[in-house]
């Protein structure tokens, strides 16, 4: 997958996996990684799917309606890419924290829903519930920060709470932070994520 890898100064820090929103690319979230942890390695990956020229991580049938088969396939593809990248760049595969926005947060949530050891934790900006009606792996020891919008037109607050409940039901530790600026990724929520990260 097309990506940027930046080796960090401190090997004991997690590797930050950056996952952009629809129409973004691997350069978008680099300034956020800088705010979260200047010393961590960064792996920023571009989604492999194109929707009218806009990169995404999986296909959708309509806004908010996911192509489940493609979601499952792309989640596996990303997880395998992360395994290969860990070998190539020699980072600890078991110490990876995703930072995703919108479609990127949705594929990060899907990694958590499908693979027990894909991520150590995740910062999810405006995520949705990636799939319903499946058993999640045991996510004991995983920490998740959700930044959600009280007036997010793409992900209503009930869905953010549903995601929290599903992850907590699988034993993940989840913190939810509320903003009221729709689906926007705000500096305030990045700062809240940064505080959460510093307590890990
Ligand atoms: C998605 O398709 O993942 C969500 O609708 C968010 C987005 O607009 O990318």
From TrEMBL:
The keyword Hydrolase applies. Keywords: Hydrolase. InterPro entries: AB_hydrolase_fold, Dienelactn_hydro. GO terms for molecular function: hydrolase activity. It comes from the Bacteria. Residues 79-183 form the Dienelactone hydrolase domain. Pfam families: DLH. This is Alpha/beta hydrolase. It comes from Ornithinibacillus sp. 4-3.
